[in-house]
Design goal:
seven-stranded mixed sheet, N-(1-d-carboxylethyl)-l-norvaline Dehydrogenase, domain 2, 3 domains, globular, Rossmann fold, eight-stranded mixed sheet, 2-enoyl-CoA Hydratase, Chain A, domain 1, 32 helices, about 775 residues, alpha/beta
Length: about 775
């Protein structure tokens, strides 16, 4: 019996099969990728080969392009014999039980004993899929329901049967958790499982109510979006994104599989407009447009939206009804509005929240699984039971009773209580029996949100907080907008360095981490804009020098620091990672010194750290690429990694830095790295930097001139790049030896202050703040 996944196979080269194959390859596991043989095909493996070619063109499929080499395309007639070498076989063919059942018989005959087989079905119960398969197959079979896009969506619904062997379940659960980065939700064998069943109920409820109450698609999406903690696409925007034809496909499947008295069956409709749109090819973004469409005119592109009753298109208007604005973010006030907006909000919210009770315990054991599924599978800000806590169990029960609508028994038993609470120094949830139990975390999962619920910070200010995460390790959390680095963050860094250094070994080290969307987007550009307007150059220079000194002190502190990065770590956010003893990066980490986009160079030691790493690689590995040229290319081009694997290739991460596939395990992994480093920790030595002076600058000037002649450099690019060249090359007095990093930082500060005084840099900063993209001037 296999105890780990050393080789996998994916059968079915459609969208989901392709993405699953790519993401398994992202773990370093080889993948056999098979599909049928098309009739009269010259190349019998053309389907799998074509799908692999598309994957290689999709920048979002692989964490590193080289991972595509781990996928071997083939076909199910000529290559089925290769399944005998495979530990895990994933079926991802058409959602048809008979097609899947026939395929399983062929797989069963070809696979090795004990290999695990799973289906990526989204709605078909396991009991239907298993059919009349052999007992051995039934023991090795389960459902792994991935969500689209596979790399980006963290939810995996795992469905097992009564005969599924425990070790097979554990092998897949562990692999998908640790290596594929999935949060696993165990589901009972019921139609639609959790996320799809509740999400499509929510969508159907909103569609019905919008048509009945004569709302525009903009009004419906405004209410069923941010106001309810749902992604900004709302309902109709989401249908355009996933394909309008998917609603009837999923709906019919659920109606066929669910009991006739299930609320979904009573709710389900197929509006004639939807049928007409699908017949016309207006299935959303994959067709000619959908509820929204882009039309080209003589004056440019315009956005149109459809009338849900007439089917006619008109100019789309972003709707912010005054009633919604008046309600603010208060769902009580929104649902109490005495107009069609209020009626719509209450109807959709109440129907969806009540339906969530149908899933517990029939589909999952407790409410935490439902909430996790909706947050991770459909990016809801709150799961349905968390949302009920937001509005109040008593309020929901009272409104339902006032309308003589049935109240779920679980809700009746919970009135005047909450589904979640903080008790006994932990987060607890209400069980179906009415008692409270601790929210369970898998071994190796540590969430800062849990720490914050039950404790107080060791220190805090308006920009950052310091938390005790146990075992003598502190966690520094940035709390600014987008976790930008400002004076408050720097003040907390100083307080942290001093506090740990003077603690007499009470604290072993530090993790820099947060659970926001981004690690840090860099310096607060709005601050720089205001200081430039006021011509307060002294304040800017003071902040730069203070930041340099603090980052330098962090690098050479007598304790280890680990930056636990996720999302974007840009500019000074990247620089703090560069100065850390180590980095533990979530695989979806984008690091980059992109200061050139706003007419600047890295100002907090980034140039020195990138130079030091490049010279260190040359010294240890004998690299043929000149370190100065390598660093110049990376910084001048504002290169940003698309993943942690690419960050390592660009030099933002070192080979010794760690990569965590599961976001929920990042803080724990970083803490363990601190504890390991703390054993006999010694601060690092200075980097072996050699400044090349005038000769180096001359070489880089030739490169810059060449780019200018080719039209690849704007006038201000030339100015910025020449300033960068001066920093990286230094002058003849800058000899190797003690203080070389500080010398480079002196050049950084000087060049930074010169650039920030230019009107062109100010224009780039303003443009970035207003447009969110670089200005080429």
């Amino acid at each position: 019996m296999p105890t780990e996944i050393k080789q996998a196979a994916v059968i079915g080269s459609g969208v989901m099969g392709s993405q699953i194959a790519a993401h398994i390859a992202n773990t370093g596991v080889p993948v056999l990728f098979l599909d049928i043989v098309p009739k009269d095909a010259a190349d019998r493996s053309m389907l799998a080969k074509g799908a692999l070619e598309k994957l290689m063109q999709d920048e979002a499929a692989f964490v590193h392009p080289d991972n595509a080499k781990l996928i071997t395309p083939g076909n199910i007639e000529d290559d089925f014999g290769k399944l005998k070498n495979v530990d895990w076989i994933v079926e991802a063919v058409k959602e048809d039980p008979q097609i899947k059942n026939d395929l399983f018989k062929i797989i069963d005959a070809a696979r090795k004993l004990g290999s695990i087989v799973s289906s990526n079905t989204s709605t078909i119960p396991l009991s239907v899929l298993i059919g009349d398969q052999s007992e051995a197959f039934e023991r090795d079979f389960l459902i792994t329901h991935f969500f689209n896009p596979v790399r980006g969506m963290r939810l995996l619904e795992l469905v097992t049967g009564p005969k599924s062997r425990a070790d097979a379940i554990e092998i897949i659960r562990d692999f998908c958790d640790r290596y594929l980065g999935k949060s696993i939700v165990l589901c009972n064998d019921t139609p639609g499982f959790i996320a799809n069943r509740l999400e499509f109920f929510f969508i159907q409820s909103a569609v019905n109510a919008a048509i009945d109450l004569d709302l525009t698609v903009e009004e419906a999406d405004e209410v069923c979006g941010k106001l309810m903690g749902v992604p900004r696409t709302g309902v109709f925007g989401l249908l355009d994104l996933i394909g309008i034809d998917l609603l009837p496909l999923i709906g019919r499947s659920l109606v066929k599989a669910l009991p006739p008295d299930d609320p979904y069956c009573k709710l389900y409709r197929e509006p004639p407009l939807f049928q007409k749109m699908c017949a016309d090819g207006s299935m959303g973004r994959k067709g000619k447009g959908g509820f929204y469409r882009i039309q080209k005119t003589g004056v440019g592109e315009i956005k149109e939206s459809i009338n849900l009753r007439t089917g006619a298109y008109a100019l789309s208007k972003d709707m912010h009804p005054q009633t919604v604005i008046a309600a603010g973010n208060n769902l009580h006030a929104l649902c109490d509005l005495q107009d069609k907006i209020g009626q719509f909000a209450w109807r959709v919210l109440s129907e969806t929240l009540c339906y969530a009770f149908e899933l517990v315990p029939a589909t999952v054991a407790d409410i935490t699984a439902v909430d996790d599924a909706m947050r991770l599978g459909y990016a809801w800000k709150y799961g349905p039971f968390e949302l009920i806590d937001q509005v109040g169990t008593g309020w929901l029960a009272a409104r339902l009773a006032g309308e003589s609508r049935p109240r779920p028994e679980f809700l009746r038993n919970t009135v005047d209580k909450t589904f979640y609470r903080t008790g006994n120094n932990r987060r607890e949830f209400m069980t179906v029996e009415g008692a409270y139990a601790p929210v369970r975390r898998a071994k190796g999962v540590l969430l800062l949100s849990d720490v914050k619920r039950v404790g107080q910070p060791v220190a805090s200010n308006d920009s950052a907080s310091l938390w005790d995460i146990g075992d003598g390790v502190l966690c520094l959390e940035f709390t600014t907008k987008a976790n930008a680095i400002n004076a408050g963050v720097l003040a907390m860094i100083k307080r942290t360095i001093d506090g740990i250094s003077e603690s007499r070994n009470r604290w072993k080290g530090l993790v820099i981490y947060n659970e926001g969307e981004n690690f840090s987007v860099g310096a607060d550009l709005a601050f720089f804009r205001e200081q430039i307007k006021n011509a307060d150059w002294r304040e800017i220079e003071r902040l730069i020098k203070e930041g340099q000194a603090l980052f330098h002190a962090l690098r050479f502190a007598p304790f280890p620091t680990v930056s636990a990065t996720s999302g974007m770590g840009l500019d000074s956010g990247c620089e703090i990672a560069l100065h850390s003893s180590a980095v533990q990066a979530y695989t979806e980490t984008s690091l980059g010194l992109v200061d050139a986009n706003v007419g600047l160079i890295p100002g907090l030691g980034g140039c020195a750290q990138m130079l030091g790493r490049a010279f260190d690689v040359q010294k240890r590995q004998g690299s043929t690429v000149p370190p100065v040229s390598q660093v110049f290319e990376t910084i001048s081009a504002a290169k940003m990694s698309k993943s942690a694997a690419e960050a390592r290739e660009l030099g933002y991460l070192r080979p010794t830095d760690g990569i965590t596939m599961n976001r929920d395990r990042l803080l724990y992994d970083a803490k363990q790295k601190v504890l390991e480093l703390a054993k006999g920790y010694k601060p690092p030595e200075q980097w072996p930097i050699v400044l090349t002076g005038a000769s180096g600058r001359s070489a880089l000037d030739l490169t810059i001139e060449s780019l200018r002649e080719q039209g690849k450099a704007s006038p201000h690019d030339v100015t910025v790049w020449k300033a960068l060249a001066g920093v990286l090359c230094g002058d003849e007095s800058s000899l190797p030896g003690p203080g070389i990093e500080e010398k480079v930082m002196e050049f950084e500060c000087r060049a930074f202050m010169k650039l920030i005084r230019t009107p062109e840099t100010f224009a780039r900063i303003e443009y970035m703040l207003e447009k969110g993209k670089p200005l080429k001037n």
